[in-house]
Amino acid sequence: MRKRTINLQHFAQGDNNDQAARSYSKQFKELLQAVFGAQSYFGDFFAGGLEAIDGIQHKDTAFSVKTSDVACVVTKGSLAAGGTPAYNTGANVAFGTGTGSTSRFGNRTEIIYADTDVPYTWDWVIHEGIDRHTVNNSLESAVADRLELQARAKTQMFNAQHGAFISASAGETINKTAAITASNVGDVFNELHKYFVNIGAVGTKVAKVTPDIYSAIVDSGLMVTSKNGTVSEDDQAVEKFKGFVIEEIPEELFQSTSTTSEGTTTTVADQIYAYITGVGKAFTGIETARTIESEDFDGVALQGAGKAGEWILNDNKAAVAKVTLTTSTGA
Q: What's the average model confidence in pLDDT over 262-288?
């Protein structure tokens, strides 16, 4: 469902075709964004998909955002007899003896936005060679094919990094010590649903689940409209469960840690990532993507280098939750 063929032959054309080095930074940027949109498992977590920049100039900083540490405050007064209303109409408030020294609106909160630099946190490279004597294809076609395959490979790297980032960003962890099965998966999602309602989260709720959790949902028999669930009758594919859009993703994208103490190994494995869509930002900067005539063989070296990272407001971490399973083996 995520894989699609992209025709890239036109990427081998350009004004610098007769030069020893050809730049493909702009084309690779477009490729990364297109492939990420088609094959990313966590693209809905990041607002705007993958932000890609070609020709980056800053070594460490991806971009700056303006943030405010002052939360929106709602002053709530009582209009009952004897209570003090939020808007104070007292005779000496803003008038009379309070002229110039008081305000009927109450205390004023100053809003200040700080410039926050967002850094790159990891990098990637491309280093391949295409020899005219052995490639068995035209150089132009080979470059186009390799750029597409490299975009797919980098998207797999993004998927792994993004899963780890979401796990680390979770503001709520629901830990289970018994396997999640068809008999209790409804209770687990009830806890998630209650959490998101209680924090006042607004937006589309999604849940990325392991294949075992997905099967438990299917086998639970709870995917009916009357129980806030949606399922395709043709192939029993779950679309929505307990108010969450459900997507099954590979187990390798979920984090797992193990510790051993006194002969007992304890493993904590993530099972579900639940969040409101668009709460984070994913980005990559392309330093170079080029081909250059090689001195070591009759052909060109295909080279690329870039940096990447993820970012989320601290306040938005409350809109990210994960369900973990803790198991112990040994003594």
A: 94
**Strand ranges, E, within 109-250:** 113-119, 122-131, 172-176, 205-209, 229-231, 238-241, 244-248
CA atoms within 13 A on the CB side of 105: 5
Q: What are the tokens at 51?
A: 């932000």
Q: Which residue has the higher pLDDT, 237 or 182?
A: 182
Name the band, by pLDDT with cuts 50, 70 and 90, for residue 113. Answer: confident
| Per-residue confidence (pLDDT) for residue 229, from 0 to 100 | 54
Contacts of 331 (CB under 8 A, 6+ apart): 262, 263, 264
Q: Give the C-alpha separation, 218 to 246, whole Å.
A: 11
Looking at residue 8, the DSSP 8-state letter turns out to be -
Q: CB–CB of 279/201 below 8 Å?
A: no
Instruction: Output the pTM of the full model.
Output: 0.81
- DSSP-assigned letter for residue 147: H
Residues contacting 28, CB < 8 A, separation 6+: 54, 147, 150, 151, 286, 289, 304
The full set of domain ranges for the chain reads 9-61+136-330
* Residue 50 and residue 33 in contact, taking contact as beta carbons nearer than 8 Å: yes
pLDDT of the residue at 238: 77
